[in-house]
Amino acid sequence: MPGRQRRLAGLQSGRRETLFRGVWIGYDPSRSRDGACIVVLAAPKQRRGKFRVLEKITLKNAAWQYQAEVIKELWGKYQVEYIGIDITGPGDGVGQMVQRFYPAAECIFYTQEKKNQLVLKAQQVINDERIEWDSSWSDIAAGFLQIHRALTGSSNITYVASRSDTTGHADAAWAIMHALINEDFILPEEGEECSYAFSA
């Protein structure tokens, strides 16, 4: 855990080492006491380039129609290449509204397999030090650290997040993952060594 925390903290600030193309938007809906979260990621032009979190918006006690309007404003502000929306609960309404103005938006329905894919992709990006965000957004690193493995009732591995008043159920981390999943897994080149030490 300490090594993982140092690695996350080290990604929070640094120079932009690549040129970015368009942006990818990720949305995580509100659940019980948590707020909804929307993030905007600048996507790298180069293979294995760095992502940059440009905006992080938390919406508490906001109607789902308003949440969709916020995404629409971001769509008008940026050159959007991808929008990933968790359609669990109120996210379903948000997804349908977003698809009216951006039909290509991906509605992410959580299954055990999909959740594993989201976390594994985030692990790969973080271990490769390919994502940066403003150091004042301390809830992002804290949110990733809240996510851990758990066993389902059928003894399968899944991932869950502990809750805190600061980060909710790792809302910002999940929103980032809903954007990152637009990139396929990057497999090692032939002969390339691969080692990961990301504990979840």
Question: Features of this protein?
Answer:
200 residues, alpha/beta, Nucleotidyltransferase, domain 5, 6-stranded mixed sheet, two-stranded antiparallel ribbon, 6 helices, 8 strands, disordered N terminus, disordered C terminus
Structure description:
- The protein has 200 residues and is an alpha/beta fold.
- The protein has a single domain (2-180), classed as Nucleotidyltransferase, domain 5 (2-Layer Sandwich).
- Helix content is 34%, strand content 24%.
- It contains six helices and eight strands; from the N terminus they run H-E-E-E-H-E-H-E-H-E-H-E-E-H.
- It has helices at residues 2-10, 64-77, 91-101, 112-127, 138-146, 171-180, and strands spanning 20-28, 36-44, 51-59, 80-86, 106-108, 131-132, 147-151, 157-161.
- It has a six-stranded mixed β-sheet with strand order 5-4-1-2-3-6. Strands 7-8 form a two-stranded antiparallel ribbon.
- A hairpin with a 5-residue loop joins strand 7 (147-151) and strand 8 (157-161).
- Helix 4 (112-127) packs across helix 6 (171-180).
- The chain is globular.
The sequence of SSEs as H and E is HEEEHEHEHEHEEH
- What is the domain total for the residues? 1
- What's the CATH architecture? 2-Layer Sandwich
The strand count comes to 8
**Overall spatial form:** globular
Taking the sheet with the most strands, its summary is: 6 strands, mixed
Percent of residues in helices:
25-40%
pLDDT < 50 runs, ≥5 residues: 1-7, 9-18, 195-200
Strand content: 15-25%
Structural class: alpha/beta
